[in-house]
Amino acid sequence: MSPAGVCACPPTPPANDAVAQAGGLRHGSTRAPMQGAAWGPLRREWTKLLFQRRSYLIWAGAFLLPFLIGLVAWLSNAPSGGEMGIVGRVFGNGLYLPVAALFLLITMMLPLAAAMVGGSTIAGEAELGTLRMMLLRPVGRGSVVLAKWLAAVLYLALGAGLMLASGLIFGGVFFGLQPMVTLSGSTIGVAHGLGLTLLAYLFGLVAMTTMVSLAVLFSTVTDSSLTALIATFIVYIVIQVLTSFSYFDWLIPYVFPTYFGDFINLFRDPIAWRPILKALLVFVLWSVGLTAVAGLHFWRKDVLS
């Protein structure tokens, strides 16, 4: 108490200030306390993808391509004689249509889609002039890169799901869904075949994370999403060309495109797990390494736009 009988204690902060301090806000901040801060960047990136017209065009293409493959097969004559591969088996069983679609698209169209969405993650923000504004939020740059990588993978996962659903629907319409004859000649039930097909698509999704990671890396290097896309695909094509020459056979076990088609080992009896697990290990190592390099480069980058 002061000599005049007035309390000299500091005033009690208002309730709003107390809530702000409890939420860890800095003095003077007017923003509301963040709820689920760890998922905030991912939610924002996913919302951005949902408001892009390009997203729906690619998803529509993912749904239509198995239909077109099935329609062409239905209008064509079934191959006669010889051992049939994945595509040839569609004529006798529509359950193979989503597998054939994955087999035909995993070496070109799916990597292109992965490079497109990955290349626009950081560079797209720079093109729009929103990158610096985005970094003003209380989120680390590493979290930004990781959130954009996860959003790109979820984007591809939805596309893969649409492609799988389309393959099963139109495979059933054109050829019917029947017990699946494996590449080894044994027969498995429809439910078992569906499970293997789902595993094949999960394998394909993990494979495409390598392309996403490579594209995200180039997206942190350049301020043009088109440049990032082109650079990613040039690297992919160069790897394909180099490994086609016997001089570079030593390179084959170490580059990720080598293993894109290894999901067909799921359709052998018994399943050849060793090449599948080796492929998954290569995909994970490349994805983690490339994404880590992208995060490090973005952390050191001087953002001007």
Notes on the structure:
The protein is mainly alpha-helical and 305 residues long. The protein has one domain. The protein is 61% helix and 1% strand. It has a two-stranded antiparallel sheet with strand order 1-2. Strand 1 and strand 2 form a beta hairpin. Helix 5 (109-119) packs antiparallel against helix 10 (225-242) and helix 9 crosses helix 10 (225-242). It is globular and about 60 Å long.
Point out poorly predicted stretches: 13-38
Overall geometry comes to globular
User: Helix segment count?
Assistant: 11
Report the average pLDDT across residues. 83
Q: How many beta strands in the DSSP annotation?
A: 2
Biggest sheet descriptor: 2 strands, antiparallel
Give the N-terminus to C-terminus distance in angstroms: 56 Å
What sequence of helices (H) and strands (E) makes up the elements?
HHHHHHHHEEHHH
Strand arrangement, largest sheet?
Answer: 1-2
Radius of gyration: 25 Å
Proportion of helical residues: 55-70%
- Report strand %: under 5%
What is the number of independent domains?
Answer: 1
- What structural class do you assign from the helix and strand content? mainly alpha
Secondary structure blueprint with pairings:
Layout: H1 15-22, H2 40-50, H3 53-75, H4 97-105, H5 109-119, H6 123-128, H7 131-135, H8 141-174, E1 180-181, E2 187-188, H9 190-221, H10 225-242, H11 273-300
Antiparallel strand pairs: 1-2
Helix pairs in contact: 2-8, 3-4, 3-8, 4-8, 5-8, 5-9, 5-10, 8-9, 8-11, 9-10, 9-11
